[in-house]
Design a protein that fits this description.
Blueprint (H helix, E strand, L loop, with lengths): L25 H12 L8 E5 L5 H8 L4 E6 L2 H14 L3 E5 L2 H7 L4 E6 L7 H13 L3 E12 L10 E7 L2 E6 L2
Parallel strand pairs: 1-2, 1-4, 2-3, 4-5
Antiparallel strand pairs: 5-7, 6-7
Helix pairs in contact: 4-5
Keywords: Methyltransferase, Transferase
GO molecular function: 16S rRNA (guanine(966)-N(2))-methyltransferase activity; nucleic acid binding
InterPro entries: DNA_methylase_N6_adenine_CS, RNA_MeTrfase_RsmD, SAM-dependent_MTases_sf
Length: about 180
């Protein structure tokens, strides 16, 4: 993995092999950030990264100037890796070790972007539950967006608040808005 743009452009991130992750590919990540660049000023954003894994997406936001980033993952190794990497890069990332669904049921916060990258083999109802909890519990600001990364074999277009999706190889980003 590498950081595509910003102050940390070109920095490589090498995660331990034992982490249970599937990082977003550089091609897909670059495409996602090209879309976001047309709608947001990164230095004024707040971001919630669910199923954060290696923190790959969060580092990209931080490199582009985002200072309010929260990563949630239930795996201690992932959280520890994100904390260490954020410290090494001197970037402001808050980490929370929690089951994402429990976090979404209990936490109270407002963000501009919620990014969720759950396992690709998630049941359809679990993908829907992410969107349901984000909107029901009011995690997004008025013009905020939920982005769920999933495989091209999963269709999230029937979920409430679905806006559009973009395919990049075997990855798809589905966008949800009020």
């Amino acid at each position: 993995m590498r950081i595509i743009s910003g102050t940390l452009k070109g920095r490589k991130i090498i995660a331990p092999k034992k982490l249970p992750v599937r990082p977003t590919t550089d091609m897909a990540k670059e495409s996602l950030f090209n879309i976001l660049n047309n709608s947001f000023y990164f230095d004024s954003l707040s971001v919630l990264d669910l199923f954060a894994g290696t923190g790959n997406i969060s580092y990209e936001f931080a490199s582009r100037g985002t200072t309010q980033i929260t990563c949630v993952d239930q795996n201690f190794g992932c959280i520890k890796f994100i904390q260490q990497t954020a410290e090494n890069f001197n970037i402001p990332i808050q980490t929370i070790k929690s089951d994402v669904f429990k976090f979404l049921e209990k936490a109270s916060m407002k963000t501009d972007i919620v990014f969720a990258d759950p396992p690709y083999n998630f049941p359809d109802e679990d993908f829907a539950k992410i969107a349901e909890l984000v909107f029901k519990n009011d995690f997004l600001v008025e013009d905020g967006v939920l982005i769920i990364e999933h495989s091209k074999h999963t269709d999230l277009s029937k979920i409430e608040n679905f806006s559009y999706s973009k395919n990049y190889g075997s990855s798809v980003f589905s966008f949800f808005e009020y």
